[in-house]
Amino acid sequence: MPYNPVPYIVLDGERLQCDPKLIGTAALALAGIKVDWGRDDYISHARPGTAQVSVLDRTGTFADKVAAKQIIGRRIELWWEHTASGITQRWFAGRVTGATARPANRDGLAGWIVAITAAAKDADLGNVVMSPGTWPTETMITRANRIADAAVPAEISAFYFYPGSVNISCWPLDVKGRDLHSLCDEFYMSMGDTYSYHPHTNVIRHLYRRSYEALIYLVQMPDGLVYVQAGNIIYDSQTYKGVGLPGCDTTADDGIQLAPNSVVTRVQVGWKDAPNGGGDVTTVAQVPEGDTNGRRTVQFTSWIDNGIHIDPMVTEVLARGQYEGALPKHPPVTWDTRRTNGFHSQAEAEVFTLAAETQGIVYVSSSVYSAWLPSIIPICAIIGGTIEYDGGWIISTTLQYIWKTNTTAAVLWNQLATSLQWRTNAAGQLSPSVSWNDFRYLTNPLVYAPS
Fold it and tell me: Within 10 Å of residue 333's Cβ, how many Cβ atoms?
């Protein structure tokens, strides 16, 4: 059976009704939810997510809210629920930033359609402007706590960052007139990282470079078919579920792209050298061939005040641009689940409908681009995209190849489970989304249950 959860909207603490029978007594949420989230390329920071929802009101409820100034700035959350299992997930959380009301005439009855736009909670950080003052020399954990304390208006529960940086020292920083969103960008970039707001847990987590061990294996889904998916990633005590994008159920139309802004050849970092009087220093890391093939520079400021920690961080940022960042960009993949009556598993629903970047990875099966570039393993991070619901989920994913660091032996044909069948309508049949080419990337020969 497909796993097909249904979304619902919570506006200003109240769940909006969606039952047409209540049209005369309550405002109704309409189909057509859309969330745009993430980043377009691997080097940049993510933009705060935005949501668009519509409400049909024949009761005057929203007219009263507008007159009472109870729309702009009100909390809005998008959830889904799976009735059979009782599972729910909050997949977007933020505040209303705008609304447009137009008269409507449906079913012969008058009413108003209110189109609401919202921004995710991390957008609120841009409206927190710091008072005059200087943050003193202090550790990264103290600096993070300052950011968290200042972020109270955004109602984000916690800010997590790389544990190895907790006790690294920062130089004094004048924060007068600075907005907290830009300070948050600088804080994470000081360690060579970026970050993402996670609405399901209401926290911000750092995003380390996409270079780590990965597993790829066969999974038999509840529909009885066998698919290929990536394994789970455990990072900073968190488990991120691995999933797969089924090639025959999805589309990718834009073509593979070489992204020059990701193929970095030089990194320049400005910082203040505390051991030598706090003077300004610029540390540079560059590829061995120098500028022979042109110069593409990433430049930023780090709050770290000691070269012992600056040097390895700068080297790591250059490696990010020379390894996974230099791989060609897989085109966005769109999955219209209305054609498959939903997702194949709970894990797929949780991953693909979450408007947040995590450390998790996805395997792209039956990709013609993988067949063209077989040396590039088709495991990716989802770094952005759109999530829509209009009678079913429509997921568009912006993908970034990861750099698989573990060497795994090729799976041989005689190691595969003998129960596997090619399109015979037998139990354990391989999905049409599994191609011959996918077998070259398997790290395990057995068939597993979905995570």
Answer: 24
Q: What's the count of helices (H) and strands (E) in the chain, helices before strands?
A: 6, 33
CB 312 within 8 A of CB 303: no
How far is CA 351 from each of CA 14, 62, 355, 436, rounded to the nearest angstrom?
26, 33, 9, 26
Q: Which of 405, 378, 394, 320 is nearest to 41 (CA)?
A: 320
SS3 track for 339-378: CCCCECCHHHHHHHCCCCCCCCCEEECCCHHHHHCCCCCC
E strands, 16-161, are: 28-29, 33-38, 47-57, 75-82, 87-106, 109-120, 134-135, 138-139, 158-160
Nearest 10 degrees: Cα torsion 253, 254, 256, 258: -170
Distance CA 41, CA 22 (A): 44
- 10 Å Cβ neighbour count for 59? 17
Task: Of 105, 101, 140, 134, give the one whose Cα is nearest residue 309.
Answer: 140
Question: How far apart are the C-alpha atoms of 221 and 237, rounded to whole Å?
Answer: 27
Closest CA to 364 of 335, 394, 323, 407: 335
Whole-structure pTM over 0.70, yes or no? yes
Contact 90, 77 (CB under 8 A): yes
Q: Are strands 87-106 and 169-170 parallel, antiparallel or unpaired?
A: unpaired
Length in residues, the chain: 451
Instruction: Please tell me what DSSP assigns to residue 1.
Output: -
Average pLDDT, 10 consecutive residues per value, the chain (451 residues) = 92 84 73 92 89 89 90 96 95 97 74 93 97 98 97 96 95 97 97 96 93 93 93 93 93 78 87 96 95 91 97 94 87 94 96 97 93 92 95 94 90 88 78 92 92 79
Q: Which of 226, 196, 194, 229 shows the shortest CA–CA distance to 214? A: 229
Tell which residue, 252, 200, 270, has the closest CA to residue 380. Answer: 252
Q: With contact defined as beta carbons under 8 Å apart, do 338 and 392 qualify?
A: yes
